Queue: 3 jobs
Job 1
Amino acid sequence: MVKPLAFKGDKKTKKRKEPSEDNHLVEKSARDRTFEAQEDDSWVTADSSGDVNGPVVIVLSSTKPVCIACDASGKVFASELENMVEGDPATAEPHDIRQVWIATKIAGTDNVGFKGHHKRYLSCDSIGIFSARTEAMSLEETFTCIPSTDTPGTFNIRTQRGKFIAVTDEGKEIRGDAESVTFNTTIRLRMQARFKPRLKASRELQAKEKISRKELEEVVGRRLDDDEVRSLKKARVQGDYHEAILDVRVKGKHDKYS
């Protein structure tokens, strides 16, 4: 489920923390960190076609940085980008919901569809004209994101008629009938970090690893030496954390009565 989008400058509401019992302290802490990783709404660049999923901004190559947008009636237009670091389109983020599309993979293919804020799909007709008025995907609502061989982190997006999405140098007109790959067909896809597979897996792994000695000692019920702390942290990553906790507790009881 895609959560509501957040833009720069929006105030974030603080989530209430529920009290937890000692035996569940570390488990709750881990869930909180994993939740934060899953809720990451920062924007990153898609590097491969496998990354393209969830909310995206389709950034076009023109003298003035623009992206593909649509209004509530389904009219598609080039929208000027404002949220960038020093004017670099590689850092672009949306400031208007009309600039955001939900990329949906088509099962069993390398193709994707782009759904707008108004629940209609981006469509390109036989002469290269764009609109967004269709509720279901067909040939005209299906695109293939081909990684660029010249510029890492960019794509050439091809329609199912074998043409490419392009923009004029001035960034005023978007077409879907380019015959070949050029600078004007080079597209950067900015996406939310939590949907990027490798980044998502990495952050969830970091969330599992990030636990303090104090939290571990509260669960075990005694002070731990350095080897025990390292062993428990490793067990959390490998998936046998609860067994390791029991082993450490048993060892502590044996040491107490030896």
Note: The CA atoms of residues 251 and 257 lie 10 Å apart.
Job 2
Amino acid sequence: MGSSGEQYLAVKYSGSLTEMLVGWVPRVRSFDTAQVYYNEHEVGSAIISFLSSGLNTSALTREDIFYTTKLEECTTYEAAKKSIRESLEKSKMGYIDLFLLHSPYGGKEKRLESWKAVEDAIEEGIVKSGGVSNYGVKHLQELFDSKPRIHPVVNQLEVHPFNTRTSITSFCSQHGIVVQAYTPLVKGLKMEHPTITTLAHKYSCAPAQLLIRWSLQHGFVPLPKSATKARIIANGNISGFNIDAVDMKVLDDLDEYLITDWDPVDCE
């Protein structure tokens, strides 16, 4: 699923840009999309096209790519099962590396039915691993209490110094769930915050690199999103420094529960 040495991209772009991304940054191996982004076909087709093209100078294969997509909504077991297969057919990727329930909306019964469909898809081999997104502690505990055959390996949610979500990330850590942090750059809203600029200057890095480094040092897998080649490369170039413990605490203390997207973690 990745490590701090790999760069993950939240893919919300056209297929043509996805193809360029694979060619731009040799370390980019993971692509994150979703049914609700309405681009699974474009993303999958671009990746497959690149792999079979002359641009693929590293001789990458499908097995070198990590492809994630997400269920649009939790409804019934049958609907989720059908939806997973439709995602696979649209992408033409052969299998889905990681399939997530995009949110806990829908209620307990629908969440658990949808998770059963993910489990069955994993056992069938069309999905390699399953996870959730935007799940709060109560949703995760509910899933564990149901005695699932397969536990979620990922919880993808908004996490950054201005919204640390400590209770959720701690629960995930205790239960072996990887936190994938989307919007790790706070959508650019805090790039000129005095603490961010001061620490970026101290570590001779860009504010975005500081935020990504903070995420990695907490053990999260950040999902930076950019359509600019230079920024994509810079976002992956964060191995040259570590934030010391004192400054990590300074960044942690910026928490103001800032939501830049949606926030289903407390829904029923």
Note: Residues 137 and 171 are 7 Å apart (CA to CA).
Job 3
Amino acid sequence: MASTDLVMPQLDGLTIDEKKDTDVQSAATAAPNGYTIPSYSSQLFPSTNATVDGSSNPAKTPFLQPTATSKVPSAPPLSPEQATKYESLLSTAKKWTDIPDTASPKSTKSPLTDSERLWLTRDCFLRYLRASQWSIPTATTRLLSTLTWRREWGVETHTADYISPENETGKQVITGFDYQGRPCLYLNPHKQNTKGKEKQMHHLVFMLERAIDLMPPGQETLALLVNFRETRQGQNASLGQGRQTISILQSHYPERLGRSLVQEVPWLIWGFFKAISPFIDPATKEKLKFDEDLRKLVPPEQLIKSYGGDVNFEYEHEKYWPAFITLANTRRAEMIKRWEGAGKNVGESEAYLKGEDAIGDGHV
């Protein structure tokens, strides 16, 4: 892979690089399949509550953006000590050139790609510092470990076409945003349709990445919603998958889980939660909530009915998947264009990349 390559999810052979000329300063972006995707801006959020294809009853594609009642909380300012530690980590990361391709001690090394430099945002550094209790050596080690893991796992090479069969039944759905603007990722275990454990994990990571693409300016976390109502024995994740999921979230997506909202857990699955509980760190456990009133956390007009909301959502893969990928690709293209326009800097602001009008760090 050339160091200038930016690898995006693909849909029917169309890469997002072909959309780089999109004018992201305009109010909306013309996207494939005839969709029009409004750009995020500092005027969040409009009163419209539209889906990608305009469907509503039933809704068959994702909501374009949060409702007007959603508000992304402001991040607390850094203390002088925290700001100094951030600058130190940023200075270190700017010197990185070649990184290992695998976790093997004998691994080859390759130059840092543009995609990886884009991933190394100001907010990314701060997430790893917070997760490392502001220890610069620990955060540095963890960042380098994640960069290698992303290469070895294939985070940027798993295409939408590769993942598509995993989602044919709608066992994972991203649509709507909670009251703090977090994208909602629904897990529906009763719709399990495959047996390959490795590809199932690829699917989960792919959806985590797309949820990140859809986060509005200023929001760094997602809301995970799980309902076990119709889940039968054998449809739930294995203990090994549960441990692997926790490891991936805690090691490579620190500070990305805002809420984990679990509904209607049968007694058989309570045993699963008890078994994986020792592997969940205290910060993650605090975000795990059972049988909450989801209407108080997610606007009912963007919450699926089976989870207590008002949205009559009907999953039809041939409609949902292209619209979902188009939306994620468009958001990603907007980020790339702003990043390139700011000078392709390590340490850029995610809020700026997502569409806020404030000057990005790379402009300073």
Note: The radius of gyration is 20 Å.
